[in-house]
Amino acid sequence: MEQLNDDICYHALKARDRRFDGRFYTAVLTTGIFCRPICPAVTPKRVNVQFYPSAEAAIAHGFRPCLRCRPEAAPGSPASVGVHATVARAVRLIEEGALEAGSIADLADRLGVGDRHLRRIFKDHTGVTPQDHAKARRLLRARQLIVDSNLSMTEIADIAGFGSLRRFNDAMKTAYGHAPTAFRRGLKTKLEPKKDTTDPFAAKSDDLILRLRARQPFDAEYLLTFFRARAIPGLEAVGDRTYARGFRIKDAFGLMICRFASDQGGVDVILRGPARDAVLEIGGRVRRLFDLDADVPSITALFADDALLQPLVDKRPGLRVPGCWDRFELAIRAVLGQQVSVAAARTLAGRLVARFGEALPDNLIAGTGVTHLFPEPARMQQQDLISIGLTTRRAQTLADITDLFAHPESDRKSGDDILAEMAATKGIGPWTLNYFGLRGLGDPDAFPAADLGILKASQIGGGPGKPKPLEQHAERWRPWRAYAAQYLWSALEHEQAPKQEKSK
């Protein structure tokens, strides 16, 4: 899709084009309100509007969010989906509260850049300073929690970072012109637990429920099929419309049940246990896990004239690239998936979880089939990894990757740094690096050209059947080769996945 300018934005606004939802926001000078491009309100005159790249930028310039189209519910803005790698990381860290307890200098240090440089590139890409972004994000996520969760106002004020209910009420009245409680009056769909208490995957009376909308079109069926085939016994449970797993954030356990809406509109996240208070972090992880913010029409427009991909796009116009819950977990799964089928990798991973994973409390997971957490790096160090059925060489590779992620500074490393360290590890080849980049880092251009499944699908579709020619052909798919890879894999969804290439 073209780079946005004011003329393109206004044409998209007049057409209420959903492909632009989340890519820009329209501020109306005569009303002081800003909207999403899909807002059902009467289109304002061209001379009366200004366009901003993010909702945070519109708020920072004094505009109030529209109550009809709900800017806080829009898909991720360009800043949060990778227009600039450093800005994307900064946005993610701010979402996780980096500026609640730290300074801009602290944030810049975590990103490995100077604070002046961070301020400059952040404003260039988002239209606001990091501090203004954090303030506006607090308001937007508070309203989202009011409308799209069943949390109490006191809980929302605390989770959104206002410090007190009074500050929360004052800030919301100033920003929206209404008290927070007004937003829950007259809601058409209230998030309430179902009465069927016999279903372990149904929300209970004390569960937290968070609704996450997906950018359309959204192929939930493909995601569920993908995760169902790879679900690790004891760690994950995937049903007809649900994905469940346990998790731990800091020292608190939790159970997460994702229920996919029958209308493909998104996901309702049910959180059970004390770790549910980390709802904002969990919401962000779920959005990345299911790639909810992908601008698929813009991505697939690049494939429109490609004879190999276009039939696959026509079949599944809303296909997403599945992400991961945790980078270390995905790195281990990638190593276990070398040279074996999906089913064999799943079996090995199940043994790993059963042997080294931490058991979850019975009262949290009763009846779900979820029993353990994925083991932390420190828990796997110095363990006999051969005992789960690995060769000596593969066990050593797994141990080396574990040591890499067990390093105290691992969480602060960029994706490029992690890939470089993995590449220097014996037993890690191009397939593993590309697969980890594709799912573990969310790199939209990662492309495992030597994957036997991708090669087979390419050959079936009339494309190259060898890695080098396929890599050359794939140059035309940049920077969305990860989506091209996923489309090729989708062509084999009803077959047993083949073995992957041998790593170096």
What is this structure's SSE topology?
Elements: H1 6-15, E1 25-28, E2 33-35, E3 49-52, H2 55-60, E4 64-65, H3 85-95, H4 98-101, H5 104-111, H6 115-126, H7 130-148, H8 153-159, H9 165-176, E5 208-213, H10 220-230, E6 236-238, E7 242-249, E8 252-260, E9 266-272, H11 279-289, H12 296-300, H13 310-315, H14 327-336, H15 342-356, H16 362-365, H17 377-380, H18 392-406, H19 415-423, H20 430-440, H21 452-460, H22 467-474, H23 481-490
Parallel strand pairs: 2-4
Antiparallel strand pairs: 1-2, 1-3, 5-9, 6-7, 7-8, 8-9
Describe this structure in words.
- The protein is an alpha+beta fold.
- The protein has a domain at 208-301: DNA-3-methyladenine glycosylase AlkA, N-terminal domain (TATA-Binding Protein).
- Helix content is 43%, strand content 9%.
- The strands form two sheets. It has a five-stranded antiparallel β-sheet, covered by helices on one side. It has a four-stranded mixed β-sheet with strand order 3-1-2-4.
- A hairpin with a 2-residue loop joins β7 (242-249) and β8.
- The longest helix is centred in the first third of the chain and has 19 residues, at 130-148.
- It is globular, with a radius of gyration of 23 Å.
- The model is unreliable at 78-83 and 496-504 (pLDDT under 50).
Descriptors for this entry?
504 residues, alpha+beta, TATA-Binding Protein, 5-stranded antiparallel sheet, 43% helix
Share of helix among residues? 40-55%
User: What number is the mean pLDDT?
Assistant: 88
User: What is CATH's topology name of the domain at 208-301?
Assistant: TATA-Binding Protein
User: What share of residues are in beta strands?
Assistant: 5-15%
The main sheet orders its strands as: 5-9-8-7-6
**What is the CATH class designation of the domain at 208-301?**
Alpha Beta
Dominant shape: globular
Corresponding CATH superfamily of the domain at 208-301: DNA-3-methyladenine glycosylase AlkA, N-terminal domain
CATH architecture field of the domain at 208-301: 2-Layer Sandwich
The major sheet is characterized as: 5 strands, antiparallel
Number of helical regions: 23
Structural class: alpha+beta
**What is the rounded Rg?**
23 Å
Keywords: Activator, DNA damage, DNA repair, DNA-binding, Metal-binding, Methyltransferase, Transcription, Transcription regulation, Transferase, Zinc
Cofactor: Zn(2+)
Domain HTH araC/xylS-type: 88-186
EC number: 3.2.2.21
